[in-house]
Each structure stands twice: as structure tokens, then as C-alpha cells.
Specification:
about 150 residues, four-stranded antiparallel beta sheet, Alpha-Beta Plaits, transmembrane helix, transmembrane, 5 helices, rod-shaped
């Protein structure tokens, strides 16, 4: 039976491997594969096939609504009327909100977007007998495995 587990690259991985060896798992039955880090910077704008879940227009839409209401209210006293000033307010609000969100993503959250230098995970594969599965699983969980899967 094989157990697949993922670990962060820490000392707990080394301790888990040495504990497994002490409990009778052969060195040839333990296989660790480190994952590579992303070499390129993440893209800021989404496309049709890929999205990171971050919206750049959420603040813009809220400010567009607020500014259009204010523009329409003030537009009753101005020459062009409430409709034009409501549309101008919506456009200005959207641009201001989009600029705020773009600034937040480019400057404030830059460290979050760039994956260079972050620690990658290691996949640990342990080949063992079915009688040892529970022992190996307990050892992996006690050494802070991120996830474990069993394959017969």
C-alpha cells in the first residue's frame, strides 16, 4: 500500500522520515519529491480561461453608484441636468475605485501575488504493508503533514 502526503519544507519532514525509518519502514520505501516554485510573476488581469478570484472592479462599482447618485442630485441645479451629471459621476466614481483597487493590488499586495522565494511543498510517498498503514499515517499527521492519501 502506498501513502502520499504533502509537507512544507521544514524540519518536521526530516523528523517524519527519520521516525518512519526507526519504526521499520525501509529507506528504499520512502520517496520525497520537492515541487518547484513558480519562476514567473503572476498576472494581474484575468482572462476567459483563468481567474485568480480577485476582482478589480468591486470598489469601482460601489463608488460609481455613490457618485452617480451624488451627481444626479447635484445635477438638478446644474446646466446639463441630472442624467448627464449622474453618468459623469458614475464614470468618475468607477475610475477612482478602479484606480484604488489597482493601487492596492500593485503596491500593497505585491508580496502576495509574487510566488518567488516562497517555500514549496514536498510530496512524500511511503510504500508499506497494510498492517503498517495506521502507524505511518499517525506519524505523518503528528509531524504536520498538510494532507494524506492512501492507494492500494
Amino acid at each position: 500500500m502506498q501513502l502520499f502526503s504533502t509537507f512544507e519544507t521544514t524540519g518536521f519532514l526530516e523528523m517524519a522520515i527519520s521516525t518512519l525509518e526507526k519504526k521499520g519502514i525501509k529507506k528504499e520505501s520512502i520517496f520525497a519529491v520537492p515541487l518547484d516554485n513558480r519562476q514567473e510573476e503572476r498576472r494581474l488581469f484575468d482572462n476567459l480561461h483563468r481567474s485568480d478570484g480577485t476582482s478589480l472592479i468591486d470598489i469601482g462599482m460601489g463608488l460609481a453608484t455613490a457618485f452617480s447618485v451624488i451627481g444626479a442630485s447635484i445635477g438638478f441645479k446644474l446646466a446639463w441636468g441630472p442624467i448627464y451629471w449622474g453618468l459623469i459621476g458614475a464614470f468618475v466614481g468607477f475610475v477612482v475605485g478602479f484606480a484604488i483597487r489597482l493601487f492596492m493590488e500593485l503596491v500593497i499586495k505585491k508580496k502576495k501575488r509574487v510566488l518567488k522565494g516562497t517555500h514549496s511543498e514536498v510530496i512524500l510517498i511511503v510504500d508499506c504493508e497494510e498492517s503498517q498503514v495506521e502507524l505511518v499515517e499517525d506519524i505523518l499527521w503528528s509531524h504536520f503533514a498538510l494532507g494524506i492519501a492512501k492507494v492500494k
